[in-house]
Amino acid sequence: MKRILTPFAIAALALSLAACGSDSDDNDESNLVSSGKLTVCSEVPYPPFEIEDPDSPSGYTGFDMDIVQYIADEMDLELSVVPTSFTAIDGASALNASQCDLAASAITINDDRKPNMEFSDGYFTSAQTLLVPEGSPVKELADLEGKKIGVQSSTTGETYANENATGADIVAFEGDSKMFQALKAKTVDALLQDIGPNRVHQDDGGFVIVEEYDGAEEYGFAMKKGNTELVEDVNEALQEMRDSGEYDTVYAKYFD
User: Which residue, among 79, 72, 82, has the nearest Cα to 105 in the 3D structure?
Assistant: First the structure.
């Protein structure tokens, strides 16, 4: 028998459905610090991964930034980039303080960081390298005995230098730009860091990579511990980017 709803019952049902829809919308973005936005912490600039670009909607381009822009678009969100020190990213303090949803800053996935943050699937394989001025007598790490080597604070480059450049004076900087200025000013004799930025400096002229070290590193995007829903969304977008061929296009733009 067909049941006839009274006007009161219809109104109640409509309110109930509206409430359910509201809950669903809230749940869709409950894993974000700001509704309608994918807020990303990044230590900028760090070419070719993070490059200041006033013509970009987010203010930044670069390998990392182009990928997170794709992820934001796939999630139908606006990308908002928050300049953040790498120390705050590495220790997860920026994520834990809800300053951002995701950290994108050429972050190596490693066992030291995993207890403090969630990681996306890896999206880039890197290596540590040694950069010196052209004509430098430094040809390998052993040549830095008694000399100064620049590294970035809280990075795998700093860790590698501490473990392997035992005879050198290790000088830590907040970012690549300050490190490179020190190398140009000859206040340090070499830089030890990821191949990406060192390759940019080499390509610009006057500097050369003399060593590349074993032990490939995989970069991942970092998220607050326990935010597995966002991790799943990011991984899904990364897979879509690979499947569509867009990842290869972005990679070729910065590395080929």
Answer: 82
- State pLDDT tens for residues 2-48: 333 444 343 443 434 344 443 334 335 778 999 999 999 999 999 99
Q: Residues for the chain: how many in total? A: 256
- How many C-beta atoms surround the C-beta of residue 248 within 10 A? 12
Structure-block tokens of residue 184: 């140009």
Kindly state which CATH superfamily the domain 128-215 is placed in.
Answer: Periplasmic binding protein-like II (3.40.190.10)
pLDDT per residue as tens digits for the range 147-166: 999 999 999 999 999 999 98
By the 8 A CB rule, do 97 and 86 touch? Answer: no
CATH 3.40.190.10 domain locations along the chain: 33-125+218-255, 128-215
Q: In the CATH scheme, what is the code of domain 33-125+218-255?
A: 3.40.190.10
CB atoms within 10 A of CB 83: 13
DSSP state of 108: B
Q: What is the dihedral of CA 54, 59, 63, 66, to 10 degrees?
A: -110
